[in-house]
Design a protein that fits this description.
This is DUF2155 domain-containing protein. The chain has helices at 2-14, 17-26, 29-40; strands spanning 43-44, 54-63, 68-75, 79-81, 87-95, 98-101, 104-107, 116-123, 126-134, 148-157. The protein has 164 residues and is of the alpha+beta class. The protein has one domain. The model is unreliable at 1-38 (pLDDT under 50).
Length: 164
């Protein structure tokens, strides 16, 4: 239950850059300035215990027109182009235990308790989305594209995990 509440709060705050921009265009100047200020104050902090520990993630791309899914392994900091489209995706950050402390998005630990990848999605050269994909909560503020759906499926450590 707590995880659902956290995911909902995250959805409201971290993926709403587009909404804040659209709202500020029609709102009074004071409301627009507040929304813009809040969006610019969000910070992503990767703790030392997490930095460099994760190499890549696996992103599932569901083609709604053909009901098929392809899985792409993407190094953190890299991206890929969706075949037969002008859509591309870039993974900018990975937090294995995503939490939000005020305006700071960070990881509570290096354990896979709430895995999240921050992505940028482009159509051609235009960025159409910047936000988070959550493995445990795939519908939490999921980007709605007319043809493609995107899911965070798996995570690849920088070094092989030791057997216990």
């Amino acid at each position: 239950m707590v995880g659902v509440v956290v995911a909902m709060l995250v959805a409201l705050v971290c993926g709403c850059t587009e909404s804040a921009e659209h709202k500020s265009a029609g709102d009074s100047p004071d409301t627009g300035e507040m929304a813009e200020s809040a969006a610019s104050q969000v910070e992503i902090l990767v703790p030392d215990e997490v930095a460099g520990q994760w190499k890549a993630v696996k992103i599932g791309v569901h083609d709604k027109s053909g009901s098929r899914e392809e899985v792409f392994t993407v190094d953190i900091g890299s991206g890929f182009k969706v075949p037969d489209s002008d859509v591309s995706l870039r993974v900018t950050d990975f937090l294995p235990d995503f939490i939000m402390k005020g305006p700071v998005m960070t990881s509570a630990s290096n354990e896979l308790n709430n895995p999240a990848a921050r992505v940028e999605i482009y159509e051609g050269d235009q960025q159409v989305y910047q936000g988070w994909l959550f493995s445990l909560y795939p519908d939490a503020h999921a980007y709605q594209h007319p043809r493609h759906g995107f899911n965070l499926l798996d995570f690849i450590p920088a070094r092989p995990q030791k057997s216990q």
